[in-house]
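Support request, please re-run this one:
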Amino acid sequence: MPLVIRWAFVVLTASLLTACNDTKIETPELPPRAIKHMKIKTLAENETRQLAGIVRAGTNANVAFEIGGSVVVMAKKIGQSVSKGETLAKLDPKPIELELEQAEFSLRQASAVLKDAQSKLSQQQQLRDKGFSTRTALDTAKANFGNAEGQVGIATSQLSSRQRDLSKTTLKAPFDGRISKRQVEVFEEVKAGEAIYTLQTQGENEVEISVPEQLIGVVRVGLEVTVKIPPLNNAIVKGLVTEVSPEAGDGNAYPVTVRLETSPDGIRPGMSAEIELAFKGEGTGKAFSVPVGALKPDVAERRATIFVYDPTSSTVQQKAVQVVGIEGNNPEIIGDIKPGDIIATAGVGQMYDGMEVRLLDPAKPF
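Re-run finished. Output below.
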């Protein structure tokens, strides 16, 4: 190749390389990360727990008074059918009626003392305003008035308790059934919770569950629960607690029997069942129910972090919350959050405070 041609080639090559070096290669800027989200709505209501159980054929259930006393009426005989709410037995109401009269008298007496204390307080206040009484006398009148108010409160509470006890002297059938056993007779003294009759369900099914010791305090005879039967396409029926064992079994769990109000078609003894207990807990009325995926656990026990979306800056703000309960499978949390806040519900482990994001449109996932 002639020297001139080779030189021209070198110059051309160098020019091309220089031009390439001067050209900036721009990397396309990725859009902010899209996040799954939810809007916080209402405060959590009752806490719920799901407990596994087994369907059993209808069995016998003991019914008892909630208070002790002397039995004066046994209204049913063995073999008789009874309807829910029908009177089965009665306790002698006279001891409770006497206590009720005493409670009424105590309330009247306490109310009179309160009225007198209020009058004296008013007098002392007027005298004090005119300079005719000491501060000590006024303070004493205020203290007497406060004590009188407290005594009225105590007397009112005692009266309500006696009224409730009087209503408990009548034992009513908790469900339809048939008397299979008559455990006591008229004029016998019985204790609270002592079996009076054994009531047998007729062609109905029950579910046997074991309630952990942490929850046994919210379970009582007559409590209505929700029952789900997974083998029958998750059929839902209502249930009624008919027996609560006073003694714990394996694993410190208490045997509890739930009677099904209706039996779905195809139900058979031995099928699995799930009982849902609903009760007031620490988070009732003040916590929010959120998905588990919305929480980023912190080191501290029962604490976590959520990410609240700020529409003005299109960023998420990290906020500490406390888990105070569970509603279904969702944690209940309290913290610096309010209804209407939008929170991230997935991928929070990779988020940080102030991270720019965009809300995921379910119709356009990418």
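The domain at 34-45+284-359 is CATH 2.40.420.20 (conserved putative lor/sdh protein from methanococcus maripaludis s2 fold). The two ends are 57 Å apart (CA to CA).
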